[in-house]
Amino acid sequence: MKRRQERSVTEHPQIEALIHNIEKVVVGxxxxxxxxxxxxxxxxxxxxxxxxxxGKTMMVRAIAKSLGAQFKRIxxxxxxxxxxxxxxxxxxxxxxxxxxxxxxxxxxxxLADEINRTSPKTQAALLEALEEGSVTTDGETRELEKxxxxxxxxxxxxxxxxxxxxxxxxxxxxxxxxxxxxxKSEELEVLSRVENEHPIETLRPVLELDELLHMQKKVxxxxxxxxxxxxxIRIVSATRQHHAVYLGASPRASISLMKAGQALAFIxxxxxxxxxxxxxxxxxxxQHRIMLNSDAKLSETTTEKVLREVLExxxxxxxxxxxx
Length: 324
Hints:
The chain has 324 residues and is α/β, with parallel strands linked by helices.
C-alpha cells in the first residue's frame, strides 16, 4: 500500500510546470501537491488532517498564486455564523435597498482552516458550495465563480471544543490525506529558503484560470473502460460488505473515484484510465467515507487496514477486459 501511495509520475508539461512552481514554496511534498491538483482538475475538494505548522496554509496559498486565482481564508471558530461564510444582505440607506455582501466562500480557492472548530450549523453552510458550486442566501441562489476549490484543514490532536464533521460533509470531500513532517534535509532546505524572504511573496502565476477551466473540460473526456467502472464498483461495494464496516462508501464515492482516476490519467498524458490509477487513489478517496463498527474499533482496526484488505481481495480487470 505504501509503495502505491508513493507513486508520483507527472508527464503533462503544464501540470509539471505548475508543480515545479508550487515546490518553490512547499518542499518535499510532491505527492500531496499532485493529489491537490487532481482534486482541482476533477472539480473536487480536499480535507487535510494534520498537526499545525507542517505547511497546509502555504500549500494552498502557493496553489492559488501559481494559478493567479482569487484566494480567501476562513478561520473557523465556535462563534462563526453561516452568514460569515456565505455572505449577507445589508440595507443601504442611500439607495434604499438591500445589497448583498459576498462572504469569503465566494472565491476561486478557499482555505477552510480548522473546519471542525465551528458548529454543525456553520459547517453545513459549506455543503451546498462543496456539492453544487453555489450558495443560497435570503432565498436567492448565487453561483460561485469557476474554478472553485476548497481545502479544509483539521487538527487530529486537539479535540477540545471541536465538532466532528458529519458523514454528509465528509462525503463532499474528494480526498482526505496528511502532509506529514519533512525530512531533516527538507527542513534544512525550508530554513534556507525563508532565511531572507519567504518564497511565497515572489511566486508568480504559471497557468491562467482559463487554461485550468479548459483542462477541467478535457479531464471529463478521458475514457473510462466499462471494466474500470466495474472495478470501481467492486471496490466500493466491498467496503459496504466488510465485516469491520458499519457504514460503507456511498455511490458518490464511486463517482469521485472515477473522476479522480480521469484527472490522474490526464496529468500523466493519457486519454484513458487504467486499474493502477484507481488502486492508487482509492485510499485517499475512501478512507474518510467509511465508518467502522464498535467491534472493529475495540480491536484497533483502522480504515487503512480495511481498505488494504479490500484492494487485495477485489479482482483487478484483466488485460483483455481493458482492451478498447
